[in-house]
Each structure stands twice: as C-alpha cells, then as structure tokens.
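Hi R.,

Quick one: here's the Aromatic ring-hydroxylating dioxygenase subunit alpha sequence you asked about.
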Amino acid sequence: MKPNLAWWPVALSRELQRQPLGCTLQGVPLVIFRDAEGVPAALPDRCPHRFAPLSAGRVRDGQIECPYHGWRLDAQGRCAHLPGQQQQRCSQALLQPLHSCEAQGLVWVSLAPERPTIAPVAPAEQRQALDTFWIQSQVRCSLQDAAENFLDGFHTHFVHAGWIRHDRKRQHIRTWVHRLEDGVEAQYSEEGTQSGLISRLFEGERGVSMGRFRLPGLAEIEYRDRQGRLNLLVSAWLTPAADGHLRLFARIATARHRAPAWLKRSLLQPLFQVILRQDRQILEKLSANQQRFADVPAPWRRDTPQDSPQDLLGPWIRQLLEHGELRDFQERHDAFWL
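And here's the predicted structure, written out as tokens:
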C-alpha cells in the first residue's frame, strides 16, 4: 500500500471524549467523534446541508450534530435526525465516511478506499515496564525533512549544542545501517558517556542506541545501557496535515524504576520542549529557504540534496517515502566521530 493511504494518527485517544474534534489529514478537513459504542468515527468536516463545520457542533447519542440547523449524522455519514421532519433517518450516506481505529493511545484515520489490512505502526516492543507521556507539536516542513532531522545525530552538536552533544567532545563510534521489514534502522555502538546535559542528567554509560524510520511516518530513537536495558525510547509519529504542516505525536518512554512517573515527566518534558523548539526553528528555516529558491533559475538552484557519508538514514527515508520500499539497499558498517 502507498504510504499516503496507510493509517495516520490524527489525535490522542484521551483527547477524543464527549465532544468532536476537528483535524486535517493530507489536506482533507475532518471531524472525528465517538459513536454510541465509544468507537472513533471520521467524516469530512462539512455538513451536507449548508456546509457548516461539523467540528463546531456537538455529539448526541453517538451522532455528530451540525451547529447550524441541527442535522445529525451517524458514523456512516447518514442523516439520522432531521429536526422538523417526521422521517428521521435516511439510508443513503450524505457524507463519505473515512476508515478509523484506535491503537497505541492514538486515533487513526486512513484515506484509502478500502480499510487498510496492515495495523497502525506501533512503537518498538519492550520487555520492561514503562512510564510514558506525550508531547504534541506542529511544524511547517516536509515529512522527509522532519524524519531525517529527528534521527540525525550529526546536527545535534550545532542545533542542540550543550543539550545533547558538544562539537569539541566528539566520540569515535561505530554504525550499522540495516533494513527493517517496513523501514530502515541505524545502530550506534561504542558511544560511552554522553557530553550533553540531558544524557548526563538521565543516562549513565550508553551501550547502544538506535534510530529507525518505519512507514508511513514513525521515527524512533532508542537508548540502551551496557546491560541492554532501556534508558529512553522516543516514538514520534509524523502526520501530514495541510499547507505543508506536520502534526507530531511524540511518546516518551522510560524504564519504570524507583523514580515516580510524574517526577520524570516534570523533569523531562521541559527539556524535550526545548529540543523540539530548536528543531522546529531550523526545520522551518530550511523549509522557508527551499521556498525562496523555488523560482530561482537552475544554475543557482539545486533541487536534489547533496548527501554525505554521514547521512545514514536520509537517502533511505527519501526512497521509502517516494516508492514505499527500499531499492538497491546495501547494509553499511562505518565509523565516525559523533
């Protein structure tokens, strides 16, 4: 299946309660709500009567009620209640419903004509008990640029100087880039103790770390200690919204131990907000600069990015998003100063 027709997260499950939510998926304005059984439903966010936004209405008896004339539509897009009429229900769908489901603490929607048979992409499975919390954000850039930025270690010395790494305190590390069933992963070894503030506060000596991208839009960073125990797993689902914007749903997971979950969240969340803000700033500068050069003549404009040996995942992410698969892939073993 093409990535754009897969399952995409549009909201946190906990956000979708008694009231409808408006969202946009790949340029399509949607309203999501829970039906009478509590199952998420998704419809175009436009009443068929006079095109009022359904997301501005309310949910009654598991149906979405238009705020303008009170037309009520069920999860299949049929008019279930028409105020002032004796005939209360019509069998014909007035709106085309979208496939929706709930998994991993998220509400998912697909624009595919048929319901996707592949389950929504899940975070890497862990044997340890975890404490988790969520961070949401929005950024104006491409999915490719956001995913590569999230997984790229070589920008952290400059964009996140002191927070994650220091340029003057690089370490000699080994990397292994290999294929996944639905994506690609880079594994980093021999990293040792990290120089950045976040790692020094919350991590001892690092044994191995992984950065992976999985279709259609999950980017993950995983840190483990010398004994193979999880220190941190950040799973970021990236959803194309509208006008070049992406929605970010990031789940931060840490191993459950003596420190209570609320304490870890209160310490980690502000730090991750700083990192997200720094990444958002550079990504939006990158996106704006690409737009500046959109109409510049060819001699002064380069459309294809110049990859380097340090770009471990970027070229493969580009290929996965373009073709839905890896082509001519070869595993790589390298050594760098990171």
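The CA atoms of residues 189 and 208 lie 5 Å apart.

Cheers,
M.
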